Amino acid sequence: MRVVESPKDMQRVCEELRSAGETIGLVPTMGAFHEGHLSLMRAARDSCSQVVVSLFVNPTQFGAGEDLEKYPRTFQQDSALAEQIGVDFMFAPSDKAMYPEGYATYVNVERLTEVMCGAARPIHFRGVTTIVANLFNIIRPHRAFFGQKDAQQTVVIRRMVEDLNMGVEIVELPIVREPDGLAMSSRNKYLTSEERKEAVVLHKSLEEARRLIESGERDADRIVEAIERTIGTARHAEIDYIAAVDSSTLEPLVKLEGETLIALAVRIGSARLIDNIKLRV
Amino acid sequence: MRVVESPKDMQRVCEELRSAGETIGLVPTMGAFHEGHLSLMRAARDSCSQVVVSLFVNPTQFGAGEDLEKYPRTFQQDSALAEQIGVDFMFAPSDKAMYPEGYATYVNVERLTEVMCGAARPIHFRGVTTIVANLFNIIRPHRAFFGQKDAQQTVVIRRMVEDLNMGVEIVELPIVREPDGLAMSSRNKYLTSEERKEAVVLHKSLEEARRLIESGERDADRIVEAIERTIGTARHAEIDYIAAVDSSTLEPLVKLEGETLIALAVRIGSARLIDNIKLRV
Question: Exposed (0-12), middle (13-18) or buried (19+): which is A221, by Cβ within 10 Å?
Fold first, then answer.
């Protein structure tokens, strides 16, 4: 595996690979790899002849007072894991290389970024789409791999790719979970052991919602209330939002129908955790 | 010359050309070709093996109450002129193809777009960078050609290309003028014959500024005042702005020094006209 720090070098290498007929898969990450990241890399490895993993803790997607400084950075371990999977290139630029002096350009997807996580994190998705657009321009991947845990992110990125004719196939892979059901996340490291035990309510409440729907419930309010009750049993949990929406438009549903996303964000201690399920109703 | 309407078709053709080692030059236009446009096409023809001219009157760069509806549309004449020059492809998509239902993505360059023309036209440059980013993604040109008349536009696009690693070389070509000095513009058609005669004050005032600078004047205020006086002699002229700025940062200059852009926008009748000169002081 080759580690590349310079955007220009990475761009040149990828242009050569693409011209030579290689199929480039990109897994954009902020590092601190867990099984979720590794599942994306394996999928890229399986379907692309060249796999690039980007590792960049992107400052523009963190709001003031968020966890940019304390976000876990474990580069040595990350690169060993990526190498084991057979990743070809790790693109790990510096902040200064991605946001040089005088940097001024942002890509923004309207509407879809103003709800759910975007309501609590107003500049978050603008940072995500800006860095992903930039990575796509540097790497020009044929395919890019994202985890379903960030379901809204995938919707936003798909919209950007379609709107701006980026010509990248977006692949979303299922959430990878801990044995007790907690969705894997680099931010789980922020939990105390007591909070860690409580954090299982996110998954538990979503599975209860699934059972309700499977037994015929279609009223979105009643499903959200059931989720609230379950999360309410955790002493340190504070709900940011619970949403039942169309999984591609993110439009709120009153009566569940069609491709449905039930998503939530909950603060537990100092961590803001997200989880979701998708169902065809 | 082949006329292509579908973004996907254009993208496929250009990807094939690029893979085959061709050098692609793009001239983005809104049509209503005059000698300014043609000079860009000839430059593209001279330095690229494949020349694409895009013709799209981009609605997102027109503000409310601006001239989107009355902007001249002369497709037959435009395509004949492009063909004469030896353009290979005319990319002429519909509004709906570029901004389909649900479109939500915008590229914005901050700061540089908030001054000069951006102060009077707050969404203009966001529309320009969005459509140019989109054209660059579809066509993936090696080089793109712009006219110096829209000097601020070139600065903004260069910033975008650098920030987002678009890998496109931006070429700016000199302003082409009518025999009396008026900068060629599709919007000159809006002038009555009396206004047309007065419009020469834009160029005349800039040439006076050039003479003042060449004879040693360095005070930006005094140069702006001299331009104001000249433009004030035209009965229908109403100044939007006169700026003396650094030609790459657009920072206002107090004392002229280095690469200097003197730019202005003036309303004459129903037309808003722009012009500029660049000097190394």
Answer: exposed
Rounded to a whole number, what is the distance in Å from the CA of B220 to chain A's nearest CA? Answer: 24
Q: The domain spanning residue A270 has which CATH number?
A: 3.30.1300.10
B17 within some domain: yes
Shortest distance, CA A84 to any CA of chain B (angstroms):
30
Domain boundary among B145, B173, B201: B173
Is the pTM of the predicted complex or chain greater than 0.95? yes
B271: in domain: yes
Residue B130 identity (one-letter amino acid): T
Angle at the Cα of A110 from the Cα atoms of A107 and A112, rounded to 5 degrees: 115
Q: How many domains, chain A?
A: 2
Q: Are A26 and A167 in contact (CB under 8 A)?
A: no
Q: What is the pLDDT along chain A (281 residues), one digit of tens a residue?
A: 999 999 999 999 999 999 999 999 999 999 999 999 999 999 999 999 999 999 999 999 999 999 999 999 999 999 999 999 999 999 999 999 999 999 999 999 999 999 999 999 999 999 999 999 999 999 999 999 999 999 999 999 999 999 999 999 999 999 999 999 999 999 999 999 999 999 999 999 999 999 999 999 999 999 999 999 999 999 999 999 999 999 999 999 999 999 999 999 999 999 999 999 999 99
| A244 and A169 co-located in one domain | no
Residues of A with Cβ-Cβ distance to B138 under 8 angstroms? 165
> Cβ A109–B108 below 8 Å, yes or no?
no
Chain A residues near residue B19 by CB distance under 8 angstroms: 19
Q: Do B159 and A102 touch (CB under 8 A)?
A: yes
Angle at which helices B151-163 and B124-139 pack, to 10 degrees?
A: 50
Residue in A15, A104, A109 nearest the CB of B104: A109
Q: Which CATH number goes with the domain that contains B141? A: 3.40.50.620
A216 and A162 both lie in a single domain: no
Looking at the fold, whether B165 and B28 belong to one and the same domain comes out as: yes
Q: Which domain holds residue A78?
A: 2-173
Q: Determine the distance in angstroms separating the CA of A132 from the nearest CA of chain B, rounded to an integer.
A: 10
B280 occurs within a structural domain: no
Q: Which residue of B has its CA nearest to A133?
A: B164
| Residue A52 belongs to some domain of the structure | yes
Restricting to A residues 112-171, those with a Cβ less than 8 Å away from any Cβ of B are 112, 129-130, 133-134, 137-138, 159-160, 163-167
Q: Which of A102, A112, A134 sits opposite B164 (nearest CB)?
A: A134
CB distance A105–B7 less than 8 Å?
no
Pair of tokens at residue B173: 């070509």
What's the gap in Å between the CA of B130 and the closest CA on chain A? 8
Answer yes or no: do B125 and B29 share one domain: yes
Whether residue A96 is found in the same domain as residue A195: no
How many angstroms separate the Cα of B68 from the Cα of each of A93, B62, B156, B254, B271? 42, 6, 22, 36, 12
Tell me: ipTM over 0.90. Answer: yes
Q: How far is CA A152 from the centre of its chain?
A: 8
Question: Domain check: are B22 and B148 in the same one?
Answer: yes
Each as own residue / partner, the long-range contacts of residues B241-246 (CB below 8 Å, 24 or more positions apart, any chain) are B241/B116, B241/B117, B241/B119, B241/B120, B241/B265, B243/B115, B243/B116, B244/B220, B245/B115, B245/B116
B111 and B220 together in one domain: no
